[in-house]
Specification:
The complex is a heterodimer of chains A (248) and B (263). Chain A has 248 residues and is an all-alpha fold. Chain A has ten helices and no strands. Classes of the chains: A mainly alpha (248), B mainly alpha (263). At the A-B interface, helix 1, helix 2, helix 3, helix 4 and helix 6 of A face helix 1, helix 2, helix 3, helix 4 and helix 6 of B.
Chain lengths: 248, 263
């Protein structure tokens, strides 16, 4: 118990250090540039304390629970030796964590409204809702595919830069054939798919796989899953909504 | 300030967020791998959910409203003075300064990046220091958001920036040490998370609606793309610099971490 308290205190002081730049920037611009007093200083301090404690607990929980779990599961899949099981897990993990992602839900409904404004689809609510759902499904399938490709890359030891650079060349080509509204939307879906809890778990999975498979290096082969998860949504949204459907 | 109901709401929202993830993990752990869930994992998951909920509610109650209000005020046409012409990019000095400063500060506080950087430091046995990596990423986001603001103000199509940016990344990939490349690519996706996205999006939307001839729907959202592209460049550059410095120091020969070249 005493060890845990010390550990949390250490993490808390680190969290305060991590938040310091944000407080300095906000304080400087509020007081010096905009020349306004800080509204509700007490509330601000309580809020900052909540952020700092939250960050410390989050990091502690990750290192206690999620990181070991991701690595253990990677090891168990490798020992089980079933590629089907591993690939199914990778797809389910990518699809499952993305389909319910709040940031994606927000971007998809904004994208559907933009598509209605650009007259790609009818401007009535059912059509907009259907378009937003199709967008979410497309992005979730794309993230599922990303983790499958990423996991196979780790198993085979393919060099990542060839796949990623090839992918971005493909995105560039698809961009040329897509309407502007879809391009902006597609580029944004790449950024919203990787949430705060998914990133550490997926990282632990990749590093765990690269650690247990002989001939793979955790650093050069273990990272990269997140990069795939940011790339494939752009690709698939451009392909499905931009090129094949012309915005529809 | 109503912090307690806020915490309850955030807790519920976080639990709902992680539900699909937990479902996938539990199904595969118990039915496919046929292993129990260790108690440590469950306790850790509770810490993660409570921590994230507190983190989010604190941001939402205290820091985001201020950040958003600042972004609005700085991009307000009146803040720029009556004599300034609204589409001249040179009139927005404080906007660029704020964009860079807030991009840097939010990235340093980003929990997903903290997690990935700690992992990288642990498995590289300290060869990739967590703090150095995070500062490199934060500098990338700072430059990216500032350049993105310039793009919105000057009205240049985003495609030029993104495509030339990736061309730079391709060249850097060739020159950078091999071990950093996958991690550098990953940081692009990691930075655009809980803290950075809301403040930076508010800045983009504020700029796009304050400047005549810009459409918030098309021009307001591109900042996130910049915030994911520039960290790749800055991390690759940081690694090249660190390697160069190690090579020039004779007493400290470069450590070989590339598995292909290891004996």
């Amino acid at each position: 118990m005493r060890f845990l308290t010390l550990r949390l205190l250490a993490l808390l002081s680190e969290a305060v250090r991590d938040l310091a730049p944000l407080l300095v920037v906000i304080g400087f611009f509020q007081l010096v540039v905009l020349r306004q007093p800080l509204p509700d200083l007490g509330g601000l301090l309580i809020g900052v304390a909540a952020v700092a404690v939250g960050l410390a607990l989050f990091v502690h929980g990750l290192e206690q629970g999620l990181f070991p779990l991701g690595e253990n599961m990677a090891g168990a899949f490798a020992r089980k030796g079933s590629l089907t099981a591993l690939v199914t897990f990778a797809f389910a993990l990518g699809f499952g964590t993305t389909i319910a992602e709040p940031a994606l839900i927000a971007v998809a409904s904004e994208g559907a409204c933009a598509a209605a404004a650009a007259e790609f689809i009818a401007a009535d609510p059912p059509a907009i809702a259907r378009y937003a759902l199709h967008l979410r499904l497309t992005v979730a399938v794309a993230v599922g595919i990303a983790l499958v490709v990423g996991v196979i890359r780790i198993l085979k030891g393919w060099p990542i830069h060839v796949l990623i650079i090839g992918g971005y060349v493909l995105v560039g080509v698809l961009t040329l054939f897509s309407p502007d509204e879809i391009v902006a939307l597609a580029y944004d879906t790449g950024g919203v798919t990787t949430s705060t809890i998914t990133v550490p778990l997926v990282t632990a999975l990749g590093v765990g796989l690269a650690t247990v498979i002989r001939g793979r290096n955790p650093i050069t082969d273990g990272f990269g899953l997140i990069a795939f998860a940011s790339l494939t949504p752009m690709m698939l949204v451009l392909l499905v909504f931009g090129v094949l459907a012309g915005g529809r | 300030m109503d912090l307690l109901p806020g915490i309850a709401d955030a807790l519920l929202a976080t639990v709902l967020d992680v539900l699909p993830l937990v479902a996938v993990l539990v199904v595969f752990q118990i039915f496919v791998l046929r292993r129990p869930l260790p108690r440590r994992t469950l306790i850790g998951a509770v810490y993660v959910v409570i921590g994230l909920a507190l983190f989010l509610v604190g941001l939402e109650e205290a820091l985001f409203p201020l950040g958003r209000a600042m972004a609005r005020q700085l991009t307000d046409a009146q803040a720029l003075g009556p004599e300034s012409s609204p589409t001249d990019w040179a009139n927005y000095g404080w906007v660029y300064a704020f964009a860079a400063a807030i991009g840097f500060a939010t990235t340093i506080a980003e929990p997903a990046l903290i997690a990935v950087a700690r992992k990288a430091e642990a498995i590289s046995a300290g060869a990739i220091p967590a703090r150095g990596l995070r500062v490199a990423v934060a500098i990338g986001v700072a430059v990216g958001v500032a350049v993105g603001c310039y793009r919105i103000i000057a009205g240049i199509p985003i495609v030029y920036f993104i495509l030339s940016g990736y061309a730079v990344v391709v060249v850097q990939t060739w020159c950078a040490p091999r071990m950093i490349v996958p991690l550098a690519y990953d940081t692009g996706g990691v930075t655009t998370s809980t803290v950075t996205v809301p403040v930076v999006t508010a800045l983009g939307l504020g700029l796009a609606s304050a400047i005549p001839g810009r459409d918030p729907l098309i021009d307001g959202f591109g900042l996130i793309a910049f915030a994911s592209l520039f960290p790749i460049m800055s991390v690759l550059a940081y690694a090249s610099l660190a390697q160069g410095r190690r090579l020039t120091r004779k007493s400290d020969p470069p450590r070989n971490v590339d598995p292909q070249e290891a004996p």
